[in-house]
Design brief:
This is non-specific serine/threonine protein kinase. There is one protein chain. With 655 residues, this protein is an alpha+beta fold. The protein folds into 4 domains: 5-19 and 262-307, no CATH class; 31-254, Jelly Rolls, CATH 2.60.120; 311-404, Phosphorylase Kinase, domain 1 (2-Layer Sandwich); 410-417 and 427-653, Transferase(Phosphotransferase) domain 1 (Transferase(Phosphotransferase), domain 1). It has 14 helices and 31 strands. Strands 2, 4, 5, 9, 14, 15, 16 and 18 form an 8-stranded antiparallel sheet that branches. A hairpin with a 2-residue loop joins β22 and β23 (352-359). α1 (2-21) packs antiparallel against α3 (264-300) and α8 runs antiparallel to α13. The two termini are 36 Å apart. Bound molecules: 2-acetamido-2-deoxy-beta-D-glucopyranose (NAG) (11 copies). One 2-acetamido-2-deoxy-beta-D-glucopyranose (NAG) is lined by residues 198-199, 217, 219.
Amino acid sequence: MQFSSLQTCVFLLALLCDTLTRARCLNFNYTAFPDNVDGTYFNRLNSGIAKGAIQVTYDLSGAIDNQSGRFLYKKQFRLWSGGNKASFNSTFVINISNKTNPGGEGLAFILTADDTLPEESYGQWLGIVNKNSNSNGTAKIVAVEFDTSKSYEQDLDDNHVGVDVSSIYSLRQESLTSYGIKLSSGLDYKVTVQYDSRNLTVFVSQTNETGKQMNLSLPLNLSDHLPEKVYLGFSASTGTNTQLNCVKSWYFNSSDIHENPNLLWVWIIIPAAAGVVLLAGVASYLYWRRHLEKELLEDAYPRIEEEIRSTSMAPKKFKLKELQRATGRFNPKNKLGKGGFGTVYKGLLGNKDIAVKRVSKNSRQGKQEFIAEVTTIGSLRHKNLVKLIGWCYESHELLIVYEFMPNGSLDRFLFGEGKLGEEMEEPTLGWQRRHTIISGVAQALDYLHNGCEKRVLHRDIKASNIMLDSDFNARLGDFGLARTLQQSEETHHSTKEIAGTPGYMAPETFLTARATVETDVYAFGVLVLEVVCGRRPGNQIEQNNYNNSIVYWLWDLYSRGRVLDAVDSRLEGDIDADDMVRVLTLGLACCHPNPHQRPSMRTVLKVLTREADPPFLPTERPAFVWPSMPPSFKEDTNSDLAGGRLTPFTEITGR
Ligand SMILES: *[C@@H]1O[C@H](CO)[C@@H](O)[C@H](O)[C@H]1NC(C)=O
Ligand SMILES: *[C@@H]1O[C@H](CO)[C@@H](O)[C@H](O)[C@H]1NC(C)=O
Ligand SMILES: *[C@@H]1O[C@H](CO)[C@@H](O)[C@H](O)[C@H]1NC(C)=O
Ligand SMILES: *[C@@H]1O[C@H](CO)[C@@H](O)[C@H](O)[C@H]1NC(C)=O
Ligand SMILES: *[C@@H]1O[C@H](CO)[C@@H](O)[C@H](O)[C@H]1NC(C)=O
Ligand SMILES: *[C@@H]1O[C@H](CO)[C@@H](O)[C@H](O)[C@H]1NC(C)=O
Ligand SMILES: *[C@@H]1O[C@H](CO)[C@@H](O)[C@H](O)[C@H]1NC(C)=O
Ligand SMILES: *[C@@H]1O[C@H](CO)[C@@H](O)[C@H](O)[C@H]1NC(C)=O
Ligand SMILES: *[C@@H]1O[C@H](CO)[C@@H](O)[C@H](O)[C@H]1NC(C)=O
Ligand SMILES: *[C@@H]1O[C@H](CO)[C@@H](O)[C@H](O)[C@H]1NC(C)=O
Ligand SMILES: *[C@@H]1O[C@H](CO)[C@@H](O)[C@H](O)[C@H]1NC(C)=O
């Protein structure tokens, strides 16, 4: 893309050079010269426009003795440039009528370097030269004369055409008498002057094209006698005898020439140089951009790869190409879902199905999530965690490869939401399956909190982050928000970045802005209620709309002894009342407003396996009291509250 635009640039530049060096050909066509003709293009030197014609030496006062005049086109005509020569054609109609007998001197079509009238060019000089400049090479002029007077010895007669170069003496002349043409007869004659850059040819004929046509042609190199740019026009003179010299129409056309072929370098070097400069510019810009981006990236994430590789069981690093091939270049058809931090695509690696999460580009957040996810989940192994197969960081693409979960995420089944647009009804999960799912998530969380080398807070437990394998076993996924805590640092059981999904966030989160083991338990409690009730958690951020929350709703039912009313109606009799009450009570206990009253995941597991009874739950939902002292939070609380560190809540969109 960049290359083609560069080509366009060079092309345009070349075109510009071309138009700059190409002289616009001169081209006009006056079929008549009415009195109101636009005269701005004409330079009248003792001449004018009157009686429908150009009047050379026409003096409205009447006295036209011993006069010379020129009538020139103001714009110059480029005759040649370097070795290039223009060609031209000019056709005009003349009408010369004598006012005396015999008449005046004559009329000429001229190409001249000089747009002034030579002094004392009246009489025999025809306004072309004067006695000083005649034949001495100083007058840069070429003329086609229509001579109506034999003024000197060299003149053929008083009715001839001649071609003059810097002189009044003609290089070649031809009498018109034998063609039935009398120049000063007051009749119209059509004249055509052609120059093909080698020969100059003149045709004279009757305007009605009858009779013979006179032609006169001679090889002539106008470049030898005239400057590059010349004026075009007519000149005429009178002496003691006078006449009217009229030009009634005038057409002129010329070919384009390139101004200066010696400036060929303009053609080649300037576009080439410009191209090189442009290329260099583009290249250095691209380099600079990449470099800057790389630097920025490296600043924010020093040694992204090292960081990932340093984790104990470093996952496999994939090549971007492999994953592009596997997902059909991230074909939208392969899209499995879209989350806050990226899009998940289905892929085929070898003969194994995979899920590839493509972290949104240019998202700083995204890159943090990426590292968090790869480093935490990558070093964990548990049957209820989504297995991370590998990762890729290439060309600004952040990709995470998981094993493929054929049944997708839990929320589809709970809330009956198929893929967007499809009104596909998912099969209802039976009670046994739901119980298994809850147990699975509990085991995964217990493993994260208590079972692995480093304590991990998931921080974003919710239905859409629970994946289901082919046997509908729960697999906890999306560790984008997960944070690792050193197990040994018992005092640091919390991490200080507010994150999560509205509806799953414990009430103290809004005050402490801290994620703790207990906030994970709270989110798990909400999930349990969801799974049993098949109902969305509601939004408890909107403080005045607290009752929307599944926790409040259920606790209300619980206090009225009608907790079973909450059970998903789709379960239709597939009910183990005792078990359900047990699980719902456990869920509510996890959602206890006071963090230190919530059970640990260990306890949760025991209740689920019936090794222990559900924790005691007050009938009325206890008020949320702060500060409450969760066991794992004691050390930090005071200083935090004294510092008044209440991070304003920012909503973080989950899936
Ligand atoms: C000049 O213009 C007239 C009128 O438009 C046209 O008839 C005539 O052919 C033109 N002359 C030339 C030589 O093109
Ligand atoms: C015109 O010029 C000629 C000589 O060049 C001179 O004899 C004559 O008197 C002049 N006529 C007028 C009217 O000035
Ligand atoms: C013009 O010249 C012709 C001869 O060519 C002559 O008969 C006529 O009288 C002259 N006209 C004038 C006004 O002198
Ligand atoms: C040529 O013409 C110029 C300008 O009229 C004049 O100054 C010069 O003397 C002339 N040279 C000759 C050799 O006649
Ligand atoms: C030629 O010009 C004269 C003077 O302007 C005019 O009287 C005459 O009619 C013209 N001839 C033609 C054929 O137009
Ligand atoms: C035109 O010029 C060429 C070369 O200068 C010459 O051979 C040819 O005869 C000329 N044609 C005419 C009609 O004069
Ligand atoms: C052409 O014009 C000439 C002079 O203008 C005239 O004598 C002749 O009769 C004309 N021929 C035709 C066919 O009109
Ligand atoms: C020029 O005139 C001569 C003699 O009249 C004729 O043989 C020739 O064909 C003419 N050439 C053109 C180009 O009209
Ligand atoms: C015509 O003039 C040009 C420019 O001065 C020159 O390069 C060329 O050789 C000349 N051609 C002839 C035939 O004299
Ligand atoms: C001039 O006229 C001739 C013959 O009609 C033609 O071949 C040539 O292209 C014309 N040149 C221009 C510049 O109009
Ligand atoms: C003028 O000359 C150019 C170049 O020879 C030619 O292409 C064009 O057709 C001519 N125009 C007319 C009106 O003859």
